[in-house]
Amino acid sequence: MSDDSHFRPWFRPKTFGPGMTPATWQGWVAVLVFIALLIGTTLLADPATIKPRDTETFIHTKAALGLSAVRLSRLALFGLLAAEIAAFVLFCRRMGAPVRPLD
User: Fold this and answer.
1) What string of DSSP letters covers 26-70?
2) Considering only Cβ atoms within 10 Å of each terminal Cβ, which end of the chain, N or C, has fewer?
3) Using CA atoms, how far apart are residues 96 and 2, in angstroms rounded to an integer?
4) Are 20 and 90 in contact, with CB atoms under 8 Å apart?
5) Rounded distance, CA 2 to CA 31, Å?
6) CA-CA distance, 8 to 96, in Å (whole number)?
7) What is the pLDDT of residue 45?
8) β-strand 20-22 against 11-13: which pairing, if any?
9) If DSSP codes are grouped into helix, strand and coil, which group holds residue 20?
10) Do 34 and 41 form a contact (C-beta atoms < 8 A)?
11) What pLDDT does 86 receive?
12) CB–CB of 61/55 below 8 Å?
């Protein structure tokens, strides 16, 4: 996609510090979808695993979404979240402007 002359990067390197920041509306939508995905993944966890502040609300939310039977262990939850974060970082690098080395 970086070969296309009409491609506008969704992300750009931050001015200060490491990482990328959204540069277009598509980048902001990608960030919002990523946050929703992380929240959704957390809802797959067993309430005893993550110890939410309001366990009753957590359980009702899972039931409303039809996720009552799904209960991920702490290790499975950590692995899934780590994979999602790594995939999003790679996505940002792919859809972002090239990172120039420091002079």
Assistant:
1) HHHHHHHHHHHHHHHHHTTB-HHHH--S-HHHHHHHHHHTT-TT-
2) C
3) 9
4) no
5) 20
6) 8
7) 80
8) antiparallel
9) strand
10) no
11) 95
12) no
The alpha carbon of 53 is separated from its chain's Cα centroid by a whole number of angstroms, namely 22
Bridge partner residues of 82 (DSSP): none
**Each residue of 28-87: pLDDT tens digit?**
999 999 999 998 888 888 777 767 677 778 888 888 888 878 888 888 889 999 999 999
Greatest pairwise CA separation for the chain in angstroms: 54
pTM, two decimal places: 0.76
Residues facing 64 on adjacent strands: none
Torsion region of 56: left, alpha or beta (phi above 0 gives left; psi -120 to 50 gives alpha) = alpha
Interior CA angle at 40 toward 86 and 57, to 5°?
140
Phi/psi for 4 (5° steps) reads -70, 125
Provide mean pLDDT across the span 9-16.
87
